[in-house]
Design goal:
Helix content is 46%, strand content 15%. It is an alpha/beta fold. A seven-stranded mixed beta sheet has the order 3-2-1-4-5-7-6, with helices on both faces. Helix 3 links the parallel strand 2 and strand 3. Helix 8 packs across helix 9 and helix 11 packs parallel to helix 12. The chain is globular. The structure holds S-adenosylmethionine.
């Protein structure tokens, strides 16, 4: 099968239902990706959308996909942590669909997937340290702490020591090293945890999410909506803590999760939790 280019927007109907408070409003898609959610907003409403992504290739793809909405759509290649410094007007809703897109996962050069051979890069954009830079520069203890904190990896010390010994350069080399450090039957679970932890560290995801949600608070109109889709408990906890500190009103006491139909169509949405807040 060829590379899957189009990332299916997760819980698209639910996002539109909760995000769009005004049919001709102004919305910010802070994680544009392939433009799936932005396309739904543009198709179903008369609203204006600003789409942000730190990955230039995602911006290019989304721009191409949404070219027929040129007069209502503006893409910006930037990190969402700086939202309030470049959004010059108040908006009615901000969407964060966190993590990586299917397109990025299936791009071997990005190094996100342990199933595909590629360099140990793992950056969404092109700035900052790569995963390999971390392996080179961090002490084994720092790597172990990172694997435990961001991946919940219990064999973190053992894996970190081996990483420093062998200095893997590719996804395949890192995957092999992890497989050799853990019981065989649980290999993929440990691989998922280790790759997730590196990705979070490389992209400083926790810092960005916190700053992004603070920035969203500043640019939202009163009664504007914040819709966040998280994919693991670490980011979900951080989102809840940050919105509480800021005084957002929570509109969804329990997370909204994908229905069975979507679940079968799009396995990536398996761990998605959608939460909605109001300023
Ligand atoms: C799950 S995808 C979004 C998919 C999109 N909602 C769709 O339906 O096509 C997440 C996107 O957020 C981007 N991203 C991650 N961290 C970012 C950040 N700090 N600033 C801007 N974009 C970021 C990634 O590059 C990726 O394209």
């Amino acid at each position: 099968m060829g590379r899957q280019v189009i990332h299916l927007p997760v819980m698209g109907d639910e996002v539109i239902h909760w995000l769009v408070v005004k049919n001709d409003g102004f919305y910010l898609d802070a994680t544009l990706g392939c433009g799936g959610h932005s396309e739904l907003i543009l198709k179903r409403t008369n609203a204006y959308v600003i789409g942000i992504d730190v990955d230039r290739e995602q911006i290019r793809l989304a721009e191409e996909r949404l070219s027929c909405y040129k007069d209502r759509f503006m893409p910006i290649n930037a990190n969402f942590k700086f939202i309030d410094s470049f959004i010059g007007r108040p908006v009615d809703g901000v969407l964060f669909d966190l993590g990586y897109s299917t397109y990025q996962l299936n791009t071997p050069q990005k190094g996100f997937s342990y199933r595909m051979e590629g360099p140990l890069d793992m950056r969404y954009g092109r700035q900052g340290m790569t995963a390999y830079d971390i392996i080179e520069e961090w002490e084994a203890e720092e790597i172990a702490d990172m694997l435990y904190r961001y991946g919940g990896e219990r064999k973190s010390r053992n894996i970190a020591r081996k990483i420093k010994d062998k200095k893997p350069r590719t996804t395949g080399e890192l995957a092999l090293l992890v497989r050799k450090s853990v019981p065989r039957r649980n290999g993929h679970k440990h691989l998922g945890r280790v790759f997730q932890a590196f990705r979070i560290a490389v992209n400083r995801e926790m810092e960005n999410i916190k700053q992004g949600i603070i920035g969203a608070f500043h640019v939202l109109n009163k009664n504007g909506r914040l819709v966040v889709i998280t994919y693991h408990s670490g980011e979900e906890k951080l989102v809840l803590k940050t919105v509480n500190e800021l005084g957002y009103t929570t509109l969804t006491t329990k997370p909204i999760t994908p229905g069975k139909l979507e679940f079968n169509r799009n396995p990536r949405c398996r761990s998605a939790h959608l939460r909605v807040f109001e300023k």
